[in-house]
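Order emerges. As here.
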Amino acid sequence: MSKIPAFGLGTFRLQGQVVIDSVRNGLEVGYRAIDTAQIYGNEAEVGEAIAASGVARSDIFLTTKIWVDNYARGKLIPSLKESLTKLRTDAVDLTLIHWPAPDNGVPLAEFMSALAEAKTQGLTKQIGVSNFNIELTKKAIAAVGKENIATNQIELSPYLQNRKLVNFLKQEGIHVTSYMTLAYGKVLGDPVISEIARARHATPAQVVLAWALRLGYSVIPSSTKRENLASNLLAQTLELSDEDMTRIAALERNGREVSPGGLAPLWD
């Protein structure tokens, strides 16, 4: 699996038995991409759920993210090896730098080249970044080449459409992965989304996910409920009209949900 799947299962904020159940249910209803991170504190549980699922590891696209404490050249690869042990796998499909953390004292070129070295060593099939603005993405490209940056995983929802950054990434041929696509559920009560959902006999979540998919983004929604996991997957077959897309495009309000101090860049 070289291409990044369009639809995956996010595990942010899910811990212990909750994440085991979510991953198990997700794999049972048809998910084949799982997104985790070192800082989520759930890699071992994700690994356990995958191992117990009966789904072949080769059929699953597994992503993890390097936490800021592990960016130094001497720490990055050992930390990824630790993640692989927890995830019970020889290699992940994609490894991302989680936040640019411009003030943490490790130069961007250092952690990007260490990440590229992890790929060379076969610990990860692809590498990429998360939460990078245009300027920092340019620096990452300068460090490792754009052909080596599989995606920039960014917060992106109808309320935060990030058009400037998205246009730049498209120009560079870097795939966009959208997280917080439902804006912590805030967009689900939006009257425009609700109206489109009613007209299309769909759920508001399906409408929002279908919007992101149609724009060419990958999505990684999470849920602890099996019925929601299954329902969200149906967004892949929901067809929105050009008018639906135009109406959702008009919902932009720069509604950012996540911007931790010291980790986040200056947003575009």
